Amino acid sequence: MFEVGFSELCMIALVALLVIGPERLPKFARLAGFWIGKTRNMVANVKSEIHAELQAEEMRQLLKSQSGLDELQQLQDEFSHTIHSVKLSSEVLEDSSKQSNPDE
Prior knowledge:
Blueprint: H1 6-20, H2 25-100
């Protein structure tokens, strides 16, 4: 994100030394390090929460599509059952027609 090289860090340290002074610089550096660490930790937590929410949304979408697939499977089973019933009915009709017309 921010590309800071060694020369830029040296310039920042020199300006901080001149502005803050040599006796308060170590305390300020510790305080700055503490807040930078807190900020990084907070950003990492936010990233992990966003990642977890995205995964949860993906799982909801998968479950939703899975329920659609279950409905399609149920319709296919009903259709197969109906086809089987029609075949049985047609066989029964054929048998009854053969029995009523033994000439054929």
